[in-house]
Amino acid sequence: MTREPYPTARRDDVVDILHETPVPDPYRWLEDPDSPETKGWLLGQADLFAKERGPQRFKSRVAELLRSGSVGVPVWRGGRHFFSRRTPDQEHAVYYVAEPDGAERALVDPMAIDPSGLTTLDAVQPDKEGRLLAYQISVGGDEESVLYVIDVTTGARVEGPIDRCRYSPIAWLPGGAAFYYVRRLPSTEVPENETQFHRRVYLHRVGTSTEDDVMIFGQGLKMTNYYGVSVSRDGRWLQVSAHEGTAPRNDLWVADLTESPIDRPELRVVQEGVDAQTGLVFGRDGRLYVHTDRDASRGRVCVSDPAAPEFGNWRDLIPEDPEAVLSDFAILDDLERPVMLVGWTRHAISEISVHDLATGERLGEVPTPGLGTIGGISERPEGGHEAWFGYTDNTTPPTIQRYDAGTGETTLWAASPGAVEVPDVRTEQVVYRSKDGTDVRMLVISPTGAAEGPRPTILYGYGGFGLSMSPGYSASILAWVEAGGVYAIANLRGGGEEGEEWHRAGMLANKQNVFDDFHAAAEHLIATGVTTPEQLGISGGSNGGLLVGAALTQRPELYAAVVCSAPLLDMIRYEKFGLGATWNVEYGSAEDPEQFGWLWGYSPYHHVRESVAYPATLFTVFQSDTRVHPLHAWKTCAALQHASTSDRPVLLRNETEVGHGARSVSRSVDLSADTLTFLARHTGL
Questions:
Q1: What are the Peptidase S9A N-terminal domain coordinates in residue numbering (predicted)?
Q2: Fewer CB in a 10 Å sphere around the end CB: N or C, the chain?
């Protein structure tokens, strides 16, 4: 077929010399989104995409499957509980409170705040008594959260707006008169290119000016630090943690607020300069529970005395499991024999075990609805015999399950509110061997009862930051499989499916392992007759966009089509844009000679070669993305359009007023329909 001509993109002779290596960057001019030339090029790409787009084949079915809605795990405060729910016709989930008599009230409705659908609810935190609610919202995808506090009974605003609160935890003190939170320094106090960084922990007293907030932590520490902060239910113990960017390790301090003022807490070190992640839970029984991967890559729970929280005083309660990763736990103590529920993921599949709280002895398991994903075990802060947890799998929209430790039974507590007819699909977990002999797992979702034989297939992966790819309800996956395709999700190194060692086997100098795992997944699907190179599409976003960018530049012959969403692709300059400076702990820094070598070895933008027949490629990017700048996709799109000898198109879908994260349902449907239509066209579905 005859391909539409590409918009003109000049190639400049821009070459940086880094560590004695020439690094060409012919499309650096595309880094300026405000230049007339960039704007003209983007308009040309928009026109080209509109011509090539064609009918959105999957749109109505994806929209129908999303009418399932959703429901969130409840948070209990006294007799009240708080939860989110999205009904079939809603663009965004609404946050509710339910009174002891069951009466519900909407507290935060993004569409009521902004009927355009551009406002998203980023975070919520009720106070310890359930009388006040702190919530954070942002607009147009920028994720620059603004904080408000409302009275739960009346809905009246009592605080806010407080800006610069992106990714801020809220740690209420008892009584709701004050909270600790995290806020960036004002832009006037930091260099222009560092305004996204420089966080500090503050104490805020409700009803007072933020000008009077007291900085309690963070001064003089690294600009890329993220901080966690929490206060125990009784208000006695303050916990502050610090992560350098997204590093898989943290420093940790505690303060006894009965022995020092809340605005000048005397923080003592629990863990500092240690290559491990640790978090604390101050139990109602007076014990300190320590969740850590220190000396335990898959995680363990230890106990200690809150007054002696240092490592030397930790004692194993739930030791590391050789196969399962310990994700979270909850304590149920209104029983003759108090228990701890422990959440695990075993090769990406969730389970919950029951243990004696005093000894850690395993007593049994919590019944779960199937082989899926469990999210957030919730208990009543004052104690009890019940727990709630979210559950989903490939064909089950989110549900909330209730476990009663008295009877040992699990029952459905709340289902997603929309009734949808879900297609019948078959999910299989397979094991394949990567290039270096490592066994890797992959979920393969296919039509039930269909004839054997190779099919158009989408291979999806992520492989980074310790994030696990676990089963979950997806309208896009179901629509694709229902139409006759196969959808495969590879549990690559770099993720968290097998614990922290699995993560580290795919980060920094080991990043090529992730790409090798992905190529091996494709080769396995081909070798076992699931698909062929002519029928295989790949898809990934963010770090997964880097993954498919590396895949298409390293093995272009292996893939027929690529969807590369919000990707990192220029790995030499990524630190200079968005939140890139917080990710050098995952990828490395081009400023360091050795780490430059790692990045230069795979940076997709720099590995586009001329006169190669590249797969059909669709870049989807979001103009308001403040995490990953769209320039990565823009520059690589221009490079591929220049270099590829294939008649398969290289296209750019550039969307405005959305960002890297949450978006309205209708925007999600459009994006999904465009990507599935593109993949179907170029894999023969």
A1: 7-414
A2: N
Question: What is the C-alpha to C-alpha distance for residues 393 and 34, in angstroms, rounded to an integer?
Answer: 43
β-pair partners for 17: 22
User: Which of 399, 409, 403, 408 shows the shortest CA–CA distance to 386?
Assistant: 403
Q: Which contiguous run of DSSP H or E holds residue 238? A: strand 237-244
Greatest alpha-carbon pair distance for the chain in Å reads: 76
- How many residues in total does the chain contain? 685
542 is catalytic: yes
The crossing angle, in degrees rounded to 10, of helices 631-643 and 543-554 is: 10
Torsion of CA 618, 505, 513, 651, to 10 degrees: 10
Q: What pLDDT sits at residue 451?
A: 76
Return the bridge partners of 86, or none: 70
Question: Mean pLDDT for the chain?
Answer: 96
Question: How far is CA 285 from each of CA 216, 235, 338, 360, rounded to the nearest angstrom?
Answer: 29, 15, 10, 15
**Tens of pLDDT along 138-157?**
999 999 999 999 999 999 99
Sign of the C-alpha dihedral, residues 205, 209, 212, 214? positive
Q: 3-state class of 605 per DSSP?
A: helix
| Residues 575, 577, 583, 588, Cα dihedral to 10° | -20
Amino acid 362 reads R
Overall pTM > 0.85: yes
From the candidates 542, 565, 603, 664, give the one annotated as an active-site residue.
542
Q: What is the pLDDT of residues 85-106, one digit of tens each?
A: 999 999 999 999 999 999 999 9
Q: CA 607 to CA 572: how far, in whole Å?
A: 12
- Among 285, 293, 286, 205, which residue's Cα sits nearest to residue 252? 293
| Residue 344 parent element (H or E) | strand 339-346
DSSP tag of 305:
B
Question: Is 660 among the residues known to form the active site?
Answer: yes
pLDDT digits (tens, 9 = 90+) for 257-285: 999 999 999 999 999 999 999 999 999 99
Sign for the pseudo-dihedral over CA of 666, 672, 675, 677: negative
Token pair 């004050």 is found at 178
The catalytic residue among 81, 243, 629, 660 is: 660
Q: What's the pLDDT score for residue 661?
A: 86
Give Cβ neighbours of residue 518 (< 8 Å, ≥ 6 apart). 459, 461, 463, 490, 492, 538, 547, 548, 551
Round to whole Å and give the CA distance between 410 and 91: 31
Contacts of 182 (CB under 8 A, 6+ apart): 165, 167, 168, 169, 199, 200, 201, 202, 226, 227, 229
- Distances in whole angstroms, Cα of residue 38 to Cα of each of 11, 50, 69, 217: 13, 18, 39, 42
CB 272 within 8 A of CB 251: yes
Q: How far apart are CA 493 and CA 441, in angstroms?
A: 10
3-state percent helix, strand, coil for the chain, nearest multiple of 5: 25, 35, 45
- So what's the pLDDT on residue 452? 82
Please identify which residue in the block is written with the tokens 């106070």. Answer: 127
Mean pLDDT across 288-316: 97
Q: Stretch 366-377: mean pLDDT, rounded?
A: 95
